[in-house]
Design a protein that fits this description.
Elements: H1 2-16, E1 28-30, E2 37-38, E3 46-53, E4 57-64, E5 75-81, H2 101-111, E6 116-119, E7 124-126, E8 129-137, E9 142-152, E10 166-176, H3 180-183, H4 185-189, E11 191-192, E12 261-269, E13 282-289
Protein backbone atom coordinates (compact mmCIF):
# COMPACT_ATOMS: atom_id res chain seq x y z
CA UNK A 1 0.00 0.00 0.00
CA UNK A 2 2.83 2.38 0.78
CA UNK A 3 4.43 1.67 -2.59
CA UNK A 4 1.17 2.28 -4.43
CA UNK A 5 0.66 5.55 -2.59
CA UNK A 6 4.17 6.69 -3.59
CA UNK A 7 3.58 5.87 -7.25
CA UNK A 8 0.25 7.71 -7.23
CA UNK A 9 1.82 10.77 -5.67
CA UNK A 10 4.58 10.77 -8.28
CA UNK A 11 2.08 10.56 -11.13
CA UNK A 12 -0.01 13.37 -9.72
CA UNK A 13 3.03 15.63 -9.25
CA UNK A 14 4.09 14.94 -12.82
CA UNK A 15 0.68 15.96 -14.13
CA UNK A 16 0.91 19.25 -12.30
CA UNK A 17 4.36 20.11 -13.79
CA UNK A 18 4.30 22.55 -16.75
CA UNK A 19 7.14 23.56 -19.11
CA UNK A 20 7.42 26.95 -20.83
CA UNK A 21 7.26 27.07 -24.61
CA UNK A 22 10.70 27.11 -26.22
CA UNK A 23 12.50 26.48 -29.48
CA UNK A 24 14.08 23.05 -30.03
CA UNK A 25 17.30 24.57 -31.32
CA UNK A 26 20.46 25.81 -29.66
CA UNK A 27 20.39 29.17 -31.48
CA UNK A 28 19.87 32.31 -29.45
CA UNK A 29 19.86 36.01 -30.24
CA UNK A 30 22.63 38.03 -28.64
CA UNK A 31 23.19 41.80 -28.59
CA UNK A 32 25.16 43.27 -31.48
CA UNK A 33 27.95 44.39 -29.14
CA UNK A 34 28.57 40.72 -28.29
CA UNK A 35 29.54 39.89 -31.86
CA UNK A 36 32.80 37.95 -32.03
CA UNK A 37 33.79 39.79 -35.22
CA UNK A 38 32.96 43.41 -36.04
CA UNK A 39 32.94 45.03 -39.49
CA UNK A 40 35.23 48.02 -40.04
CA UNK A 41 34.12 51.56 -39.19
CA UNK A 42 31.82 52.82 -41.89
CA UNK A 43 29.93 49.57 -42.33
CA UNK A 44 28.22 47.53 -43.30
CA UNK A 45 26.18 47.91 -40.14
CA UNK A 46 25.38 44.95 -37.87
CA UNK A 47 21.64 44.21 -37.70
CA UNK A 48 21.51 41.23 -35.32
CA UNK A 49 23.58 38.26 -34.17
CA UNK A 50 22.49 34.61 -33.91
CA UNK A 51 24.70 32.39 -31.73
CA UNK A 52 25.04 28.61 -31.48
CA UNK A 53 27.14 26.72 -28.94
CA UNK A 54 28.35 23.13 -29.09
CA UNK A 55 30.78 20.94 -27.20
CA UNK A 56 33.82 22.17 -29.12
CA UNK A 57 32.94 25.50 -30.71
CA UNK A 58 30.89 28.65 -30.64
CA UNK A 59 29.41 29.94 -33.90
CA UNK A 60 27.84 33.26 -34.77
CA UNK A 61 25.92 34.48 -37.81
CA UNK A 62 26.34 38.24 -37.87
CA UNK A 63 23.72 39.68 -40.21
CA UNK A 64 24.72 42.85 -42.01
CA UNK A 65 22.82 45.67 -43.67
CA UNK A 66 21.67 44.77 -47.18
CA UNK A 67 20.23 47.02 -49.89
CA UNK A 68 21.16 45.00 -53.00
CA UNK A 69 18.62 43.47 -55.40
CA UNK A 70 20.33 40.06 -55.33
CA UNK A 71 18.33 37.61 -53.14
CA UNK A 72 19.92 36.76 -49.83
CA UNK A 73 21.22 38.45 -46.71
CA UNK A 74 24.70 39.88 -46.20
CA UNK A 75 26.34 37.74 -43.57
CA UNK A 76 29.56 37.50 -41.57
CA UNK A 77 29.94 34.01 -40.05
CA UNK A 78 32.47 33.22 -37.34
CA UNK A 79 33.43 29.83 -35.89
CA UNK A 80 35.67 29.66 -32.83
CA UNK A 81 36.94 26.15 -32.04
CA UNK A 82 38.21 25.82 -28.49
CA UNK A 83 37.47 24.75 -24.90
CA UNK A 84 33.78 25.09 -24.14
CA UNK A 85 31.96 25.10 -20.82
CA UNK A 86 31.10 21.70 -19.30
CA UNK A 87 27.36 22.41 -19.58
CA UNK A 88 27.62 22.01 -23.37
CA UNK A 89 29.03 18.46 -23.14
CA UNK A 90 25.66 16.92 -23.95
CA UNK A 91 25.19 18.97 -27.10
CA UNK A 92 26.35 18.09 -30.59
CA UNK A 93 29.83 18.82 -31.87
CA UNK A 94 30.65 21.23 -34.67
CA UNK A 95 32.35 19.49 -37.54
CA UNK A 96 35.72 20.98 -38.36
CA UNK A 97 36.67 21.05 -42.03
CA UNK A 98 39.83 22.62 -43.36
CA UNK A 99 39.63 25.47 -45.85
CA UNK A 100 40.02 24.28 -49.45
CA UNK A 101 39.24 26.23 -52.58
CA UNK A 102 36.85 23.63 -54.02
CA UNK A 103 34.95 23.36 -50.74
CA UNK A 104 34.78 27.13 -50.38
CA UNK A 105 33.50 27.57 -53.95
CA UNK A 106 30.71 25.11 -53.17
CA UNK A 107 29.75 27.20 -50.12
CA UNK A 108 29.92 30.35 -52.22
CA UNK A 109 27.48 28.99 -54.80
CA UNK A 110 25.05 27.99 -52.05
CA UNK A 111 25.31 31.47 -50.50
CA UNK A 112 24.94 33.24 -53.87
CA UNK A 113 22.70 31.08 -56.06
CA UNK A 114 22.45 32.20 -59.66
CA UNK A 115 25.54 34.45 -59.46
CA UNK A 116 28.38 33.59 -61.81
CA UNK A 117 31.41 33.52 -59.50
CA UNK A 118 35.10 33.45 -60.39
CA UNK A 119 37.84 32.45 -57.95
CA UNK A 120 40.49 35.06 -57.22
CA UNK A 121 43.86 33.62 -58.36
CA UNK A 122 46.10 36.01 -56.39
CA UNK A 123 47.60 35.71 -52.91
CA UNK A 124 46.12 38.27 -50.53
CA UNK A 125 46.23 38.73 -46.78
CA UNK A 126 44.84 41.02 -44.11
CA UNK A 127 45.93 41.62 -40.50
CA UNK A 128 45.19 38.00 -39.58
CA UNK A 129 46.83 36.22 -42.49
CA UNK A 130 45.95 35.02 -46.00
CA UNK A 131 42.38 34.83 -47.28
CA UNK A 132 40.56 33.87 -50.47
CA UNK A 133 37.40 35.03 -52.19
CA UNK A 134 35.18 34.65 -55.24
CA UNK A 135 33.67 37.60 -57.13
CA UNK A 136 30.66 37.88 -59.40
CA UNK A 137 27.85 40.10 -60.66
CA UNK A 138 24.36 39.74 -59.22
CA UNK A 139 21.06 41.20 -60.26
CA UNK A 140 20.71 44.66 -61.72
CA UNK A 141 23.91 46.56 -60.91
CA UNK A 142 24.94 44.41 -57.92
CA UNK A 143 28.44 43.17 -57.24
CA UNK A 144 28.95 40.22 -54.86
CA UNK A 145 31.81 38.43 -53.13
CA UNK A 146 32.11 35.38 -50.92
CA UNK A 147 35.32 35.51 -48.86
CA UNK A 148 36.83 33.00 -46.43
CA UNK A 149 39.70 32.83 -43.98
CA UNK A 150 41.11 30.34 -41.49
CA UNK A 151 43.32 31.45 -38.60
CA UNK A 152 45.25 28.49 -37.24
CA UNK A 153 48.84 27.81 -36.23
CA UNK A 154 50.91 25.31 -38.23
CA UNK A 155 50.69 21.73 -37.01
CA UNK A 156 54.27 21.69 -35.75
CA UNK A 157 53.42 24.61 -33.40
CA UNK A 158 50.20 23.13 -32.06
CA UNK A 159 49.74 20.97 -28.96
CA UNK A 160 46.91 20.24 -26.51
CA UNK A 161 48.68 22.40 -23.94
CA UNK A 162 49.80 25.33 -26.05
CA UNK A 163 48.93 27.07 -29.28
CA UNK A 164 45.75 25.20 -30.12
CA UNK A 165 42.51 26.70 -31.41
CA UNK A 166 41.07 27.69 -34.79
CA UNK A 167 39.00 30.58 -36.13
CA UNK A 168 37.12 30.33 -39.42
CA UNK A 169 35.46 33.30 -41.08
CA UNK A 170 33.02 33.57 -44.01
CA UNK A 171 31.69 36.75 -45.59
CA UNK A 172 28.79 36.96 -48.02
CA UNK A 173 28.46 40.54 -49.23
CA UNK A 174 26.55 42.21 -52.11
CA UNK A 175 26.23 45.92 -52.82
CA UNK A 176 24.68 47.95 -55.62
CA UNK A 177 27.11 49.77 -57.90
CA UNK A 178 30.17 48.67 -55.89
CA UNK A 179 33.52 47.69 -57.31
CA UNK A 180 35.52 44.60 -56.41
CA UNK A 181 37.91 46.72 -54.34
CA UNK A 182 35.06 48.28 -52.36
CA UNK A 183 33.62 44.86 -51.54
CA UNK A 184 36.99 43.75 -50.16
CA UNK A 185 37.09 46.61 -47.64
CA UNK A 186 35.25 44.61 -44.90
CA UNK A 187 37.66 41.68 -45.39
CA UNK A 188 40.68 43.90 -44.84
CA UNK A 189 39.09 45.91 -42.05
CA UNK A 190 37.14 43.56 -39.79
CA UNK A 191 38.25 43.10 -36.18
CA UNK A 192 38.15 39.88 -34.17
CA UNK A 193 37.01 40.65 -30.63
CA UNK A 194 36.16 37.18 -29.28
CA UNK A 195 38.49 34.85 -27.41
CA UNK A 196 38.52 31.95 -24.93
CA UNK A 197 39.62 32.31 -21.34
CA UNK A 198 42.19 29.54 -21.62
CA UNK A 199 45.66 31.11 -21.99
CA UNK A 200 46.78 28.10 -24.05
CA UNK A 201 44.18 28.93 -26.72
CA UNK A 202 46.14 30.87 -29.33
CA UNK A 203 45.38 30.40 -33.05
CA UNK A 204 47.40 33.49 -34.00
CA UNK A 205 50.86 32.19 -33.20
CA UNK A 206 53.77 33.97 -31.59
CA UNK A 207 54.08 37.72 -32.14
CA UNK A 208 56.59 38.75 -34.80
CA UNK A 209 60.11 39.49 -33.55
CA UNK A 210 61.23 43.04 -33.02
CA UNK A 211 63.78 44.71 -35.23
CA UNK A 212 67.36 43.82 -34.42
CA UNK A 213 68.43 47.32 -33.38
CA UNK A 214 65.34 48.23 -31.40
CA UNK A 215 66.26 49.07 -27.79
CA UNK A 216 70.00 48.61 -28.25
CA UNK A 217 72.61 51.23 -27.51
CA UNK A 218 74.46 52.62 -30.46
CA UNK A 219 71.39 52.34 -32.72
CA UNK A 220 69.80 55.78 -32.78
CA UNK A 221 66.41 56.13 -34.42
CA UNK A 222 65.78 59.52 -35.94
CA UNK A 223 62.56 61.27 -36.59
CA UNK A 224 61.65 61.12 -40.25
CA UNK A 225 59.67 63.91 -41.77
CA UNK A 226 57.28 63.15 -44.53
CA UNK A 227 58.68 63.90 -47.91
CA UNK A 228 57.05 66.88 -49.58
CA UNK A 229 55.86 65.91 -53.00
CA UNK A 230 56.42 68.62 -55.57
CA UNK A 231 54.41 68.49 -58.71
CA UNK A 232 55.87 69.33 -62.09
CA UNK A 233 55.40 72.91 -63.21
CA UNK A 234 52.22 73.40 -65.13
CA UNK A 235 52.42 75.37 -68.35
CA UNK A 236 49.97 78.22 -68.07
CA UNK A 237 49.25 80.28 -71.20
CA UNK A 238 50.46 83.82 -70.92
CA UNK A 239 47.84 86.54 -70.87
CA UNK A 240 48.33 90.04 -72.15
CA UNK A 241 47.80 92.21 -69.12
CA UNK A 242 46.82 95.78 -69.86
CA UNK A 243 48.25 98.37 -67.50
CA UNK A 244 45.61 100.05 -65.43
CA UNK A 245 47.02 103.56 -65.96
CA UNK A 246 47.29 103.09 -69.71
CA UNK A 247 44.56 103.73 -72.17
CA UNK A 248 43.85 101.56 -75.10
CA UNK A 249 45.64 102.85 -78.20
CA UNK A 250 43.44 103.17 -81.22
CA UNK A 251 44.55 102.19 -84.68
CA UNK A 252 43.39 105.58 -86.02
CA UNK A 253 46.39 107.90 -86.34
CA UNK A 254 46.35 110.61 -83.76
CA UNK A 255 46.22 114.20 -84.81
CA UNK A 256 49.23 116.38 -84.32
CA UNK A 257 49.18 118.70 -81.41
CA UNK A 258 48.52 122.30 -82.49
CA UNK A 259 48.96 125.63 -80.84
CA UNK A 260 45.59 127.32 -80.77
CA UNK A 261 45.88 131.12 -80.91
CA UNK A 262 43.07 132.92 -79.22
CA UNK A 263 42.47 136.68 -79.27
CA UNK A 264 43.71 138.47 -76.23
CA UNK A 265 41.99 141.27 -74.46
CA UNK A 266 41.47 144.46 -76.52
CA UNK A 267 43.59 147.47 -75.38
CA UNK A 268 42.94 151.17 -76.33
CA UNK A 269 45.95 153.16 -77.57
CA UNK A 270 45.50 157.01 -77.95
CA UNK A 271 46.97 158.50 -81.17
CA UNK A 272 48.21 162.23 -80.96
CA UNK A 273 47.32 164.53 -83.88
CA UNK A 274 49.38 167.48 -85.34
CA UNK A 275 46.98 170.06 -83.99
CA UNK A 276 47.46 168.78 -80.52
CA UNK A 277 44.22 166.91 -80.30
CA UNK A 278 43.84 163.30 -79.56
CA UNK A 279 42.10 161.18 -82.14
CA UNK A 280 39.61 158.48 -81.35
CA UNK A 281 41.32 155.50 -79.84
CA UNK A 282 42.23 152.71 -82.18
CA UNK A 283 42.02 149.16 -81.12
CA UNK A 284 44.95 146.85 -81.37
CA UNK A 285 44.52 143.17 -80.98
CA UNK A 286 47.37 141.44 -79.24
CA UNK A 287 47.84 137.83 -79.91
CA UNK A 288 48.89 135.58 -77.12
CA UNK A 289 49.39 131.84 -77.51
CA UNK A 290 47.38 129.60 -75.18
CA UNK A 291 48.83 126.65 -73.40
CA UNK A 292 49.15 123.40 -75.34
CA UNK A 293 45.84 121.57 -75.63
CA UNK A 294 45.87 117.80 -76.24
CA UNK A 295 43.30 116.71 -78.75
CA UNK A 296 41.08 113.93 -77.32
CA UNK A 297 41.67 110.42 -78.51
CA UNK A 298 39.19 108.94 -81.01
CA UNK A 299 37.61 106.91 -78.17
CA UNK A 300 36.15 110.16 -76.84
CA UNK A 301 34.69 111.18 -80.22
CA UNK A 302 30.94 111.04 -80.19
CA UNK A 303 30.56 111.85 -76.52
CA UNK A 304 27.73 114.23 -75.84
CA UNK A 305 28.44 117.71 -74.63
CA UNK A 306 29.25 117.80 -71.01
CA UNK A 307 30.09 114.11 -70.95
CA UNK A 308 33.34 112.85 -69.50
CA UNK A 309 35.78 110.54 -71.26
CA UNK A 310 36.40 107.18 -69.59
Amino acid sequence: MAALSLVAATVLSGCNTRQDVGTPTGSIMVPSENALILPPPGGPAVLNVVERRSTNAIEQDIYLYTSAATPGQNLLRAQFFGPMNAKFDQQSRSNYAGVRDNRMMAEARRALPGVSLSLNPYFLQNNYGPFGYAFGRGRANDACIFAWQQIRQPENHRSPLKGYGTIQVRLRYCATGASETELLAPVYGYTITGTFGDPAWNPYGAPPPLEAGLGRTGNPIYHKEEAVTTSAPVAVPRRQVQPVARREVSSVPARAEQQVVAPAAVTSIPVPQPDGTVAMPQTETATKPLPNVIVPAPACVGQQAGGACP
